[in-house]
Amino acid sequence: TNQWFLPAVRGDIPPGCAAHGFVCDGTRILVFGGMVEYGRYSNDLYELQASRWLWKKVKPQAPSNGSPPCPRLGHSFSLYGNKCYLFGGLANESEDSNNNVPRYLNDFYELELQHGSGVVGWSIPVTKGVLPSPRESHTAIVYCRKDVGSPKMYIFGGMCGCRLNDLWELDIETMTWSRPETKGTVPLPRSLHTANVIGNKMYVFGGWVPQSAGGEISAPDGEWKCTGSFSYLNLDTTEWIGLISDCQEDKSNLLPGPRAGHCAVAVGTRLYIWSGRDGYRKAWNNQVCCKDLWYLDTERPLAPSQVQLIRATTNSFQLKWDEVPTVEGYLLQLHADLPVPPVAGIPGTGVPESSVLSSQGGCSLHQSPQSLPSVPYPEMKVDHPSQTNNLIPNNVQVALSSSSKVEGKEKVAAPENKVTQETVKNHTDATGFKESNAPSLLPVCTSGAQTSANVGELHDLDKQNVNPDASVSSTVSSTQTMVTQQAVKTESSSTNGAVVKDETSLTTCNSKSEAAETAYAMPSTRVNTGQPNDSHSPRAAQRPVKSRDRRWYDVGIFKNNSAVVSQFYLLPEETLNINSKTEAADVLDYRLLKKQDLFPGTVYRFRVAAINGCGVGPFSKISEFKTCIPGFPGAPSTVKITKSVDCIHLSWEPPASPSGNILEYSAYLAIRSTQLQENPSQLVFMRIYCGLKTSCIVTAAQLSNAHVDYSSRPAIVFRISAKNERGYGPATQVRWLQ
Question: Entry's CDD domains (predicted)?
Fold first, then answer.
């Protein structure tokens, strides 16, 4: 939501402090030391349970071989596993806080944590090698290669009367210090910068650097300035790569301004940069505190989960998929079993490449609060539309990073922010896109703070009666069985069988890998042409198509992880011919495309890819669903499960739009079977109820034979379907979370 809020914290609330140590361990935060007021430093340790916004002052045991850490500021405090590592900082030698006598530290401590809450105590590890020199306002990160090697802690830069740019490595398993040899251009000496690990790279941004030309280490009384320079260190090759130089001009405000004392955090593959201050040492009155929030997308997003079905009708699907963190939208595509006619006479239009900021290593940084960079997907608007399909309409501008309130709607798009598209041949691979290692840097505009109630009270929401859309259908086997799926978690009978969470997670038995479905994919936005679509006629749909052509059609680009699909875009005949011969094609003007309605009783394949500032990521595995056949009843809805001592009570509502009179309902339970071991995706069901009532009892004996499905969260699976004069309609599949 890009919305700041002020949590209502309680407990042992720590005093305000600066230059403290800060780590996040799951849902708890640990804060150590810092400057409480000028000349008075702290060595207190506080723990915040963020799930309850509860502060607690903790008292670790003192080390057996020395004294606990003295009060300090500007130290590093790094988490790895169940231990925090404290190094260096600045202490005050004087007992009088008004008479500050600075002492730079290079002591090293280890703090063992208890699981979930609390700490064990401090220890002073016995290390080998030469310790790094004393310093404060440095950075320390921990990195461990996935394939080989032990975890390493890297310390970079800092202040010890002058700025430093040396790199130190600590092997945490052997506790050995060393100075790794690096390649590339080492960043300028700096302090109060940030360093964050994403993948195998340590990203270093900002800080105080020497004012002198050439960046040589300045004397203690020399001048220094804030910098906006940005580099990363490849931790596998120890090679420095510069992304933004200190002297690079940025007259258009496309990049974060110079700053020091800011904070930065990695969320997935995205780096967020917040606040800080800018200025010169000899011009304190001119220092400016920053209040801007930026982010850097360092790589394309991961593939989403398979598309899942929430509801199917005769001519539409309601779909969802698992969210991918820190993405701007999703490209949804379908493939139809029926031959879909190409549209003749609609030309593809090429869009020229846009200029990007080049840097070492072939990386490109993009950013603009006013004009967003080239990324390999079309113009779109990232929005929270009121429509249920959340489709990105009308080929309008996109803001990948800002939010504002417009006419009562929360909007994540600024009209002046545009995204242009580079020619596709620079980004194509087997799925239509080439992975780019070029990071893209974007700003985030946020709304003001709001005071919230204690979020611990949110747990009470679990007891509310939630009524999820449960009418879902899909082909589950070679038969015409249709299944809807929702996930429920039961409380005791006193909760009135409330559905706690609608976690629709349909596992289709016909999941194909991307390699088996190689196809060219073009991203698009949904645009209404206003032209009649003659291709909807059955005659047009029967136009012969070569079976070897694997044609994927765009449904649209969606802000959220759900969509209502009733149409898809038709591609021009020329484009289909190009796609069948080459891996590259011109970018289409989707405002000229016509759309095709879905047909009843037809199987459609779906795949989805996530989009961020670096482009379109890989597509998900393929899911396959079938539209309903007219005349059959819909799926039962609003399924509730109430747990008792020796059984459970299953109840449901009649289909929302039944066809004809409902003659009976059937309820089924997925059971253990040898057939299931051979094909885990093909569940085996036993009927446990048949009758006119909209409820049934599932006995303990029946549950003892149940299969626990681990396709997502562990669950017992039920199916409920309704029958009329024509037969059984689609079933509602319920995952009872265990």
Answer: FN3
Rounded CA gap, 46 and 69, in Å?
A: 14
The type of residue at 579 is: N
Which of 270, 297, 324 terminates a domain? The answer is: 297
Residue 291 shares a structural domain with residue 321: no
Same domain for 333 and 273, yes or no, is: no
CB atoms within 10 A of CB 516: 9
Phi/psi at 643 (nearest 5 deg)?
Answer: -95, 135
- pLDDT of residue 287 exceeding 80, the answer is no
- 332 occurs within a structural domain: yes
Residue 470 reports pLDDT greater than 80: no
pLDDT tens, residue by residue, 164-182: 999 999 999 999 999 999 9
- Tens of pLDDT, residue by residue over 233-244, are 999 999 999 999
188-233: pLDDT as tens digits: 999 999 999 999 999 999 999 998 655 455 455 468 899 999 999 9
Instruction: Tell me how far apart the alpha carbons of residues 476 and 587 are, in angstroms, rounded to a whole number.
Output: 36
- Phi and psi torsions of 576, nearest 5°: -65, -40
Q: Say how far apart CA 625 and CA 599 lie, in whole Å.
A: 12
For 139-161, the DSSP string reads: EEEEE--SSS---EEEEEEEESS
Which is nearest to 179 in space by CA: 162, 149, 158, 156?
Answer: 156
**Three-state DSSP class for 362?**
helix
Question: Which CATH number characterizes residue 266's domain?
Answer: 2.120.10.80
Mean pLDDT of 79-99: 93
Whether residues 613 and 722 fall in one domain? no
Separation CA 499–CA 486 (nearest Å): 10
CATH assignment at residue 598: 2.60.40.10
- Asked if residue 315 and residue 293 are part of one domain, the reply reads no
Same domain for 77 and 99, yes or no, is yes
Question: Is 698 part of any domain?
Answer: yes
CA atoms of 33 and 91, how far apart (whole Å): 11
* pTM across the whole model: 0.67
| Beta strands at 10-11 and 54-58: parallel, antiparallel or unpaired | parallel
The answer to which of 119-133, 486-500, 588-602, 663-677 has the lowest mean pLDDT is 486-500
If asked whether residues 149 and 67 sit together in one domain, one would say yes
Q: Which residue has the higher pLDDT, 396 or 656?
A: 656
CA–CA gap between residue 362 and residue 592 (Å, rounded)? 35
The whole domain housing 615 covers: 308-338+551-571+590-627
Whether residues 48 and 186 share a domain: the answer is: yes
Per the structure, how many domains does the chain have? 3
| Side-chain half-sphere CA neighbours of 72 within 13 A | 25
Residue with tokens 């709607």: 409
| Run of H or E including 340 | none
List, as one string, the DSSP characters of 587-632. Answer: PP-GGG--EEEPPTT-EEEEEEEEEETTEEEEEPPBEEEEPPPTTS
Quote the tokens at residue 309.
């079905």
Give just the sign of the alpha carbon dihedral 396, 399, 400, 406: negative
Q: Let me know whether 616 and 682 are in one domain.
A: no
Question: Euclidean distance between the first and final Cα of the chain, in Å?
Answer: 31
The verdict on residue 365 lying in a domain is: no
